[in-house]
Write a structure and sequence with these properties.
Layout (H helix, E strand, L loop, with lengths): L1 H23 L6 H11 L3 H5 L3 E10 L6 E9 L3 E8 L2 E7 L4 E6 L5 E5 L2 H9 L16 E10 L2 E9 L5 E7 L5 E9 L5 E14 L2 E10 L6 E11 L50 E2 L1
Antiparallel strand pairs: 1-2, 1-13, 2-3, 3-4, 4-5, 5-6, 7-8, 8-9, 9-10, 10-11, 10-14, 11-12, 12-13
């Protein structure tokens, strides 16, 4: 009997150990499941869809140029309207997008402010950003394809790497925290004013909940390889303030339209690159002209 009892107990213990071992092995997640967890962690679809307008007020800490801190205001309105204003020494940078057309304010050859339309690359980039919701919410309905391409470690956090192929042909990657399922990092290929392409990396930190949604209040943009970076710091955030549609039109911008002979002859200056207002808080990218 003792031997039978020992045999039964041994088998029960071995079975229990095997079950425990199997339970300890994590079940792999699919890209679709990771996206669902990301949306839930950031507040959920219902909370995001309640947001009609959003305004960020803060500053950009930059290692480019003489000024280390530049005040900014970013305004957004559904479905895809955005207005970004950056105050620089003796100059104001302004970009406006009405959901289909965009304009930028820049100094002309004679020093007067000119309003120029977005380039085709800039329009494609703006249309690809999907407004307040970002690219992952309803990504299938937007014509995007999201795939899981690997795992990585980002600043001490284990992360899933998702590749997003948009309907417009752009590709970029998003690193999702394997524990919190919030976004840690993303990358994008951009072209500068000289047509040179490079990869920009964006890091998302200091998440805070506002009106039920998680938004990073520090967003750092870098070209990698230890190069200079720009850090966006949100000081104040407003949900659903009244914003008139006119603020997102060409008529809202100061400056004149360039005369035909001056087009393409503007003096060199610091560019305001394309930006993604959201995608759970995507930054302004300084120094670039278009995305890919």
């Amino acid at each position: 009997m003792k031997r039978v009892a020992l045999w039964l107990i041994s088998n029960l213990l071995l079975t229990a150990a095997a079950v425990a071992s199997e339970a300890a092995v994590p079940i792999p997640l699919t890209a679709e499941e990771i996206v669902a967890k990301n949306i839930a962690a950031s507040g959920g679809i219902d909370a995001w869809q309640k947001i009609e307008t959003m305004v960020w007020v803060g500053h950009i800490e930059t290692e480019h140029g003489k000024e280390s801190s530049l005040p900014f205001v970013l305004e957004q309105k559904r479905p895809y309207k955005s207005r970004f204003e950056l105050k620089m020494p003796n100059q104001v940078g302004l970009r406006v997008y009405d959901g289909s057309q965009g304009w930028k304010l820049r100094p002309g050859r004679n020093g007067m402010l000119e309003v120029q339309p977005y380039t085709q690359d800039e329009l494609s980039f703006a249309k690809d950003m999907q407004g307040i919701d970002g690219p992952l919410v309803d990504y299938k309905a937007k014509g995007s394809v999201v795939t899981l391409v690997g795992k990585d470690n980002v600043e001490g956090h284990k992360a899933y790497i998702l590749n997003v192929a948009s309907a417009s042909g752009f590709n970029y990657r998003i690193w999702i925290d394997a524990k919190s399922f919030l976004e840690l990092k993303s990358d994008r290929t951009i072209s500068n004013s000289m047509g040179m392409k490079g990869t920009v990396y964006i890091y998302y930190r200091d998440y805070r909940k506002t009106n039920g949604v998680q938004i990073p209040h520090t967003i750092e943009t870098s070209a990698g390889n230890g190069g200079a970076s720009d850090k966006m710091v949100i000081e104040k955030l407003f949900i659903n303030p009244p914003l008139a549609d006119r603020r997102f039109t060409r008529a809202s911008m100061p400056g004149r339209d360039p005369v035909p002979e001056e087009r393409g002859m503007s003096r060199p200056h610091r560019q305001l690159g394309p930006y993604n207002p959201m995608m759970r808080g995507r930054p302004i990218i300084l120094g670039g002209e278009g995305g890919q």
